[in-house]
Amino acid sequence: MSKPRVAILTMGGTIASTGAAPDATTIYELDAARNPVQELLPILSGVADIVVEAFAHLASHDIPIATVLDLARRIAAIRARNEADGIVVTHGTDTLEETAYFLDLLLPAGAPVVVTGAARPASALSADGPLNLLNAVRVATSAEAADQGVLVCMNDRLSAARFVTKAHATATDAFGAAEQGHVGAVAGGEIAFFNRPRNGTRPRFDPHAPGELPHVDIIHCHLGMSPALVDHAIADGAAGLVFASTGNGSIPAAVKPSLTTARAAGVVVVRSSRVGSGAVTSAKVDDEYGTIPAGSLNPQKARLLLMLALRETRDRDHIAAMFRRA
After folding, report:
1. What is the pLDDT of residues 222-253, one digit of tens each?
2. Interior CA angle at 85 toward 78 and 190, to 5°?
3. Could you write out the DSSP letters of every residue in 242-258?
4. CB neighbours of 200 closer than 8 A, spacing ≥ 6?
5. pLDDT given for residue 202 in this prediction
6. Are residues 294 and 323 in contact, defined by beta-carbon separation less than 8 angstroms?
7. Is 292 strand, coil or helix?
8. Looking at residue 112, what DSSP letter applies?
9. How confident is the model over 65-80, as pLDDT tens digits?
10. How high is the pLDDT of residue 188?
């Protein structure tokens, strides 16, 4: 019987990096002349017919948002042409959750899309990238993974792009979802799903929609905060702002006059939280200043949804409805 076809799109990151010694697990770099992911093909070919495409070769904190939009378009093309039964994206972990969620917003149901990476470089004595990638390929060949939205496969766990986040700077078990939990696991090469992500009602956007992605900034709230950062972002032409607020999306009194300025300038403001778990709920400030609660979206994911929403509409109520469905 023919093996399933999997397209691997490499983006760089730790999984494609090397260090100076086997115990160098936090100091490493990309080599422009070498992609260690390519070296894993003999192992991966036992699971699927693999095609590897070097889409980018960057540390994930250096990937432009336009490159991720191009990645979504490339995946959409692979699906439309039936070039693969599943797609795997290898990516640096710093912004892996953002790319995964951005893809989730841009890609409709279809062949599995699995994002993976590594906490340790390919040269490390205990490199986690090879098994992460092998498991991701296994998931990408699973019929049960289809139509589940974009999945993240790290450390033998499967997570929904909508909920997963990186919660540790260096550990191999850095990824999880504090309240929602993982959606599945890979053990002994076998895939088990615990639950299915809620995908049907979520907002979806066309990756081929015309126009540039609007400028949206994240403002980190803190003790004794000045409105200067907010005022600068408005003056700099931001179309939207996401507050990484304290607690339940609280806005400091000193900043509230700037919210009036933002509203008058047509800048849409979303209240998220820097806390790390829990949902930001509706509050009096939303009625007074036109802000939008982000629900359980963390600030970095709220920014991505707001960017795509603003490219489609500038209507605050319409955008607020998208966040309620997210």
Report:
1. 999 999 999 999 999 999 999 999 999 999 99
2. 140
3. EEEEBTTTB--GGGHHH
4. none
5. 86
6. yes
7. strand
8. -
9. 999 999 999 999 999 9
10. 93
Closest of 120, 153, 148 to residue 138, by C-alpha: 153
**What single letter denotes the amino acid at residue 199?**
N
Q: Active-site residues: which are they?
A: 14
Distance of CA 326 to the CA centre of its chain: 14
The domains located in the chain, with CATH, are 5-193 (3.40.50.1170), 216-325 (3.40.50.40)
DSSP string, 10-65: EEESGGGEE-SSTT-SS--EEBTTB-GGGGGHHHHTTTSEEEEEEEEEE-GGG--H
How far, in Å, CA of 150 to CA of 86, rounded? Answer: 11
Contact 306, 293 (CB under 8 A): no
Nearest C-alpha neighbor of 91 from the set 136, 124, 51, 145: 136
Partners of 160 in the beta sheet?
Answer: 151
Residue 201 clears pLDDT 90, i.e. is over it: no
C-alpha–C-alpha distance, residues 51 and 236, integer Å: 43
pLDDT digits (tens, 9 = 90+) for 105-154: 999 989 999 999 999 999 999 999 999 999 999 999 999 999 899 999 99
129 vs 133: CA distance, rounded Å = 6
Q: How far is CA 248 from the centre of its chain?
A: 23
CA distance 105 to 11: 19
- Average pLDDT estimate for 41-63: 97
Closest C-alpha among 167, 157, 174 to residue 120: 174
| Closest by Cα among 241, 282, 237 to 259 | 241
Which token pair is 294? Answer: 């982000």
Q: What number of CA atoms fall less than 13 Å from residue 146's CA on the CB side?
A: 9
Which residues partner with 29 through β-bridges?
Answer: 18
Predicted structure pTM score: 0.96
Amino acid at 211: G
pLDDT digits (tens, 9 = 90+) for 7-18: 999 999 999 999
What would the two tokens of residue 75 be? 């995946």
Return the amino acid letter for 29.
E
